[in-house]
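Inputs:
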Amino acid sequence: MLRDEIGCSLLTLYTEVVSWGREPLQLDYKEQESLRQYLLGDLPPAEMAALEERLLTDTVFYDELLMVEDELIDQYLSGEQSQAERESFEAYFALAPERQQKLRFARALKKYLNRTNEAEARDVVIAKPAFSKPAADPNKSRRSLLPFLPSNPIVAYSLAATFVLVVGLVSWTTLNRLKNPGSHEAGQALAVVLTPGLSRSLDGREIKKISIPPGTDTLELQLELPKAEYATYRAEVLRSDQTVVATIEGLKPATANAKASITVPLSASLFKRDDYSVKLAGKRADSVYEDVTGYVFRVLN
Amino acid sequence: MNKDWILTQESFDALLNWLDPRREEAGKKYEEIRLRLIKIFTCRGCLEPEDLADETINRVSKKLPDIQGTYEGDPTRYFYGVANKVHLEYVRRKPRPIPPIPDNAEEIEKEYECLEKCIEKLRPEHRGLVLDYYQEEKRTKIDHRKKLADQLGIALNALRIRAHRIRLSLYECVQNCVQDVAG
């Protein structure tokens, strides 16, 4: 009881200080391997005392043990261990209740990642427009393209030039569509009304959550305006990491039931599971944009 | 095991003072020692590692008046010696084997829902990092993490540590959430 009361508050402080305030040095391969063997119950008894004493006195070494523990669990779940390691894992390592909990957590995390990947794969099937984030590895796409190119350099360059032209045309068309919302092709649209406010909780209300049904072409954001002060507006849509998803200019306000609003049509394929914000700016007579308000919403799929 | 002796406020204060005269530092050291003893007993396959760690600490506290005047060196090492004795007694008692936690579909689903909530609660940059870090498997995982470290301008091991810390906070959040749901 006494121990718990004192320990709890100290543990909170300790965890914060230790967890975020320090960048431990890396242990060498041999030390990491010893920790793996220790966790799997395969370390020779003669080496155990020294290792355990170090665990008690060396914070870096103890932190490394925790990391190796999680890595062993991940490797087990993804089938990256040798047969001998799997056997030790199942017969020794995974017996502790604490580790069985960690194993369940790792399974849940893996499932979450798989679901996120599946959702992203669905988005990729619908061609990503020019605003999307560049590929993490440009060489990857080049490598996958090369085997299909003919060995004759003239033919290869001709094909490549045609490919670049087609990509250019597609990008130009996509850009034009996003810049001119009126020209967006008719299809299944999902209209969502957003009220101004850049905080996560608007006057006690929860952030607007959106599920985009399969087959939706257009997400129509209907931005409520405090008042229609400008003839035209610009809307900038950003992801949670502040990368720009789309910028649309020349948006005109409409009034219905004494309420002014702006409709922003966007390709649904631009969105994946994330938090988004919309920055709205009004165009002054001198063509300079002035910030008006902001909106937030969350895409759930 | 000798469980008759009870840790009093006075003996606990004396223990903290032995670990470090500065109260805050002593508290940190105490928690470090306790967590690590629990881990060591877990690694040795003990069924109730928390109880064994507490028994170790109790015994050190009890012995303290006799040793603190003469003991030299890092007090942590003394705990290790006592922990070995406690473990030896535990093994002699031939403890029952650890029963596996049954996989209950409803609980697994609850845990998954908690994980979703906890991931939502993460700061966007932490969420992005942890989801990206644990993305790939096998060989592609190594390459993927190297690229991620390059993008962030940090060493691979620094990335590994960052991802681990976020995972740790996520794990704690999920465990707390599961307990709250269970009431």
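Chain B touches chain A through 62 residues (CB under 8 Å). Flag for discussion at group meeting.
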